[in-house]
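My current task is to audit a protein record that another person submitted. Alongside the sequence sits a line of tokens, each denoting a local backbone shape. Where you disagree with what is written, explain briefly why. This is what I was given:
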Amino acid sequence: MFKKFLFSIMLLNSFLLFAQDVVVFSKYSESAISELDKLSSATPESKFLEILKLEALNIATEAVSSLSTKSFKVDETLSEKCKAISDKHITEFKKKVLALEKKERKTNIPTIKEETLNAIKKEITELEKLALKPINDSISTLDKEKSHNQTLTNKLAATELTALDNAAKTILKEWKKANKEAVITTEGELVEDIKEKAKDITLAQSEEKFPFPPKGQIEKEALAKFRLYKAGDKVTLKYAPVPTRIQTASGTIRSIGRDKVKINFDSVNIKDIVDPIIRDGMSKEKTLANREKYVKDILGNIRKKRNRFYDDNLQANADKIIAENQKKGYVLYIGKWTPVLDVVKAYLNRDISSWKNDKLNAIEKATLADAKLIDDINSNTSSYRAVFSTAIDFAGKTLITEAELLSSQAELTDVDELDDAAIAELEANEAKLKKQKEEEAAVKIRQALENRQAADEKKAEIEKQKNQENDLPIGLIAGAILIIGVVAFLAFNSKTRNKIFGGAKKKSMHEVVSNLNGAAEDAAPPLPVPGSGGPSGSMAPKPVPTSNAATPTSPSEKTKIDLDDGLSIERGGDEPAAPQAAPRKKISLNLGGATTSLENTGSIDESEGKTGGELTPPSSAGGLTPPGGGLTPPGGLTPPGGALKAPGSLTPPGGLTPPGGALKAPGSSESSDDSDKSNLIVNPNLNGTGDKLRLKK
């Protein structure tokens, strides 16, 4: 039990010691790293070139700088110059051929033609070289510059850091000159885990300074100090039955009970024993507890001393280890102890890589600039380069034409022996052949232009179809809106709807007048014949067919019929008939703002500013002649102007003719006014309420 307790105390002591921590910090390393970083960053480019084993790294940019603003415009008269060369040699070709004898011409023409063509090619080629020399020289310079920069790129990309150690040592020497305490060489073993090393050292020092006593010695001291009494042991002790009286008992212990101990013949209460060690010695449990406490107190005091020493010396031991590492040439770099030479090499590697990347980017930029300028020059001068090849081709074709012409002439007699007509024919053929060649060339050009125009038109048609396809939804929407508008208009306009969808058909003028006449006959009896009580005999008018129009029921009732836009008929009086007045019939005709009214008053009134009048039949019953027969008024009198006639030849009473001629029935061919397309038929037997006819256009 006691041993287990002692082991647990030692474990607790170890745990408390290792719970402490160490701060690893090096002000020296911080200062060294900062200074080395600055020295590395200040390394000149020549040092980098030395490290990379490069002699120089000069990027070429002069050609781009000097040629970027240069104009490469070519002489616009090159085509004319080429043509002049061609014409000159072709003229010489003709002279050479014509200078030969007739029999020699056909044989020598191919040779002379080939020589002439070679001369043309040579001269045009020389002209091309001369014209394009500045352009070709510029492109050649740019090509060389681009090649140089590309070579630099390849070299720089393939370099390796071969001389880095020497450059790093040079930087360390410069650092040593500025800092006397600097250590630039690395020697000795490195302590990497400073924390654990410092803990081990401090713990060993604390154990050495405050050792635990031997195990048997502590146990013996505990046994000697805390005696366990039993029966048969001799003892002398003091006890106090009452606090004010102390007694002594001495002898052999006869027995030890729970509360009392018997010494010889005395019985002593254990609780009254004055000495606590003797009192606890009467109990085994208490004696063992006292022994354990004694051991614990001793070990605890030693542990406290060790912990105090550990706390006081742990960081100091760590600092000593840090100083030893620095003296050996190590610095704390990114949380790790690193040789100072490796730190400088890391900085140099970083700076060289950055410088190398910057150089590569600059070289690539210069190379791309050269290539772009070359492309621009070629693009701007491509049309001029084609001038020379085109001129040579054209000269060759012209030369072939001339050779064929001269070859055909060689078959005829010599030019000197030909008459004027033959010479004229030859010249005409030559001109015709030349013109034919020119026309063929023009046709080719025109065909190319037409093809281009057709392609453009086709492209425009495709674009138009695309636009129409895009506009189709808009057209559908507009059409739908239009249809909805038409339907709404027809829904709210019954008159227009009836016209469109076959409504009631409007009556013609003849039907309207006939209806009015029939309605008048139904409303009033015919005029009486003199000497008779009613309409009978031969004088009675023949009945007119009854109209389907409604018959007015009272003098004041008015009926209006719309025939067409601006044309209507009104039947009935505008005013109630005066008492005891004779019934009147009034028919008004209104055409285009001119109104004509007829009444049975026996007179015709002409309104100012209007064409027409009012017709009033005689008040007495007279012999109006109905359609198909003649009626004689009472007394055999004939109304002024003659008897009334049937529709088609109606003359108002009094013989007065309204402006524009007598009123006639519709369709009468005797109408004198062809422009008046409305005729009126008036029933002479009208009585009662007047019928008013009004026509409007």
